[in-house]
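Case 330 in the screening queue. Each case pairs one protein sequence with one candidate compound; here the compound is S-adenosylmethionine. For every case the pipeline is the same: read the inputs, emit a complex structure as tokens, and attach any notable structural observations.

Predict complex for case 330.
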Amino acid sequence: MHNNPLPRIDEQPEVRAKLLPLCRLKPGGMWTDSVSGHRVACIDAADASAVSSLMDRKLASLAIQDPPYNLVAFETRSVRDYIAWARCWVTNTLGALAPDSSLYVWLGADQRDHFQPLPEFMILMREFPIQARSFITVRNQRGYGTQKNWMAVRQELLYYVRGNPAFNIEAEYTDIPKTLRGYYKDVGGERTENLERGKRDTIRAGNVWVDIQQVFYRLQENVSGCYAQKPLKSVDRIIRASSRPADLVVDFFSHSGTTLLAAEIAGRRCYTADVDPVYCEIAIRRLEHFRTSGKTGWQNGHAFEKELPASMLPHPSDTAADRSTQPTLF
Ligand SMILES: C[S@@+](CC[C@H](N)C(=O)[O-])C[C@H]1O[C@@H](n2cnc3c(N)ncnc32)[C@H](O)[C@@H]1O
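Case 330 output:
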């Protein structure tokens, strides 16, 4: 049994060629889910008319965008080109959002290149009629680094709002028990400490999330072939905090379909997209697999295992796929 039986599709053109005929969507195509009304479109997030066809005049109350970060694992371009491209998909995102809505953007900062594109993206966002609300950091368990630098374990998540969107504070509570005493304050003439003041026994996530397990091959939610999968728990937290049941959630960079699946589980509708037909197919199959098996991913299997058993795939030791974690950067 191999840890990640399907190699990274972006690095394996011959595997990609085998997968393409198995994909329901061609570029420009859209799949509509007959069960919950989700949509998956094979489109470019920067293409205004394609996004408008996907939305079909519906407005979402939440967007969760996870674009390529312009770092090594993705095709890189100049920061200027990256920001010009981001301006297009952010414009399309705001066009898809309701007057009271939230936008979350996952983004990276390249410490070997003046932390691009994070600061440029933050400055870009000042052009838009949207308020910055929080700058969240998700702490990964595994990181990368050298003996001469701090280990890089962070994922950045920007939170913006328009109007007066939902925020359900219950979703912010973690399972981490309150243990630290000692923050004393006088309340009504009585000296109290933090453990007696709080209503709950567990701590709030705050804007540094330390309770999220990074996806790797041992987890059920692992989707092999994907290289940038976000943990379901992180997206579930965003959806439950910043939308209401039956709301519409959008994600124009679907990849493994984490937002689609999290929306299904939380009882929201999701319109999602990816420019690559293979990731669109993986997202649809992940949803279908969840409905038939109750499983959130394939752990050591993969989305195409019926048509492409291991014997038809390159041996993982011949590829970069047998790594014990999924992404090291994202
Ligand atoms: C960082 S991954 C998203 C990961 C996702 N949140 C998950 O949990 O699986 C970025 C995805 O964006 C897709 N992508 C890149 N450029 C795109 C574009 N112009 N329009 C739509 N999707 C694009 C890539 O194919 C890739 O699947």
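Case 330 observations:
- DSSP finds eight helices and 13 strands in the chain.
- The first strand starts at residue 30 and ends at 32.
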